[in-house]
From TrEMBL:
<comment type="similarity">
    <text>Belongs to the Tdpoz family.</text>
</comment>
<dbReference type="InterPro" id="IPR045005">
    <property type="entry name" value="BPM1-6"/>
</dbReference>
<feature type="domain" description="MATH">
    <location>
        <begin position="142"/>
        <end position="267"/>
    </location>
</feature>
<dbReference type="GO" id="GO:0016567">
    <property type="term" value="P:protein ubiquitination"/>
</dbReference>
<dbReference type="InterPro" id="IPR056423">
    <property type="entry name" value="BACK_BPM_SPOP"/>
</dbReference>
<keyword id="KW-0732">Signal</keyword>
<feature type="signal peptide">
    <location>
        <begin position="1"/>
        <end position="23"/>
    </location>
</feature>
<dbReference type="InterPro" id="IPR000210">
    <property type="entry name" value="BTB/POZ_dom"/>
</dbReference>
<comment type="pathway">
    <text>Protein modification; protein ubiquitination.</text>
</comment>
<dbReference type="Pfam" id="PF24570">
    <property type="entry name" value="BACK_BPM_SPOP"/>
</dbReference>
<dbReference type="Pfam" id="PF22486">
    <property type="entry name" value="MATH_2"/>
</dbReference>
<dbReference type="Pfam" id="PF00651">
    <property type="entry name" value="BTB"/>
</dbReference>
<dbReference type="InterPro" id="IPR008974">
    <property type="entry name" value="TRAF-like"/>
</dbReference>
<dbReference type="InterPro" id="IPR011333">
    <property type="entry name" value="SKP1/BTB/POZ_sf"/>
</dbReference>
<dbReference type="InterPro" id="IPR002083">
    <property type="entry name" value="MATH/TRAF_dom"/>
</dbReference>
<feature type="domain" description="BTB">
    <location>
        <begin position="298"/>
        <end position="365"/>
    </location>
</feature>
<protein>
    <recommendedName>
        <fullName>BTB/POZ and MATH domain-containing protein 1-like</fullName>
    </recommendedName>
</protein>
Amino acid sequence: MRKCHVMLLLPAAGLYLVATCRARSFLGCSPPARRMMGHSTRDGARRALEGDEAYVTRPRRTAAHHSLSRTKTANAKRALGENAEAAIGGGGGRSQRLAARISVPGDFTRSHQLTPATAGEGRREAEAATAEPCPAHLRTTTASFWIFKLDYSETKNLAIGQRVSSESFSAGGHLWKISCYPRGDRREHNGEYVSILVSLVSKSQNVKAIFDAFLLNRDGTACWAPAKRIVHVFQQEILFGWSRFIKGSDVELNYLANGLARFICGVIVIQENPTPISMPPPDIGNHLGRLLDCAIGSDVSFTVDGEQFPAHRAVLAARSPVFEAELFGSMAEATMPSITVQDIEPAAFKVMLRFIYTDSFPADSELGDSPAEMLQHLLAAADRFALDRLKLICSLKLVENISVDTVGSILVCAETYNCPELKNRCLDFFAEGKNFKEAAFTDGFVILLQKFPSLAAELRKRVVI
């Protein structure tokens, strides 16, 4: 009876299980897999690697176990059936103990080192599709790897076309089966080559996947020289792979370890990244902006230097804690249909209202003839109504507008409304070159010394006159 070994690799868990079973032309089975796993995959793998014993029962022999590929003719089946029965041997209901752990190269999953198969080499004629490179836009999904440990002294005497197959395994949500023909799958090769083929077992069509196969050296390291890779769109139950994977004489001469030839095969299902759905940009700001423009449903009005600004209490309260306290608290403004706002420029109030509704800031060209002055008024309004985001934006914009003419007034604004970063930028500007000498004669600098004489001491520390 021929010994067939299968090792299920679990890359995610970093564990490897080796099972030995006696089967006629069958590799691995579901019951052994379940027993190997124990109570859970991780627990079973751990126990197996630690040396716990488990049992693998030989599955009941069926005609399918000895059959040729489904693409073979009935005559070929009849011609080889008797020889296959004699070569494989009799039954027996015994179970085999779990084999000892073997050395597996830690880099066997480095598929990028595999040599792509030559176009058309060792392909089955039943498949007209050709291999193709794996495009960059494809996303790799699930991968499964199997290792075949074949007793070469026995399998090399099998009939041409007789295969050893894995149990169905899952990769990428599909079931697959790998078949190894120790003496090849084609008569015209005269039994000189080992064939490695894979088939899609589940009822699926057009499944794109990578099929990898390579050998282990005698010392258990991966041998990339005869390694092969193909990318193929698989159809159900059609075998695909390499009829001339490697010469049997090469296996016998270079790759046997204790009489075993070890083939590692992997199926990596890939799928194209779905075309991204075009999403329009958020437009809630546009809708709320139109609500502000047409004053539909407005329930409060603000008077700023004689100019009226209708608004909505709920929107203002949602954006500003100051407006919330003023419009829904115990203050008198809570019941007033019109509220007069002092100490703020109408243009600045208008920009502030639009920012509250749309969260958008106007372009510099919309800030008037003096952007620095408008930004200072707007920063003051943002500080007054606790609009922190608007205040930060104004501060950053003012940094861009620092000049000899504006640095004094901007520094006053920074000190008044607690903008430390803006203040430091202004002090740095004073310390550069001749900026201080020129800015000292501006009205803004005079106001600065009047309102914050303590800043003169800070300037003396930084400025070299």
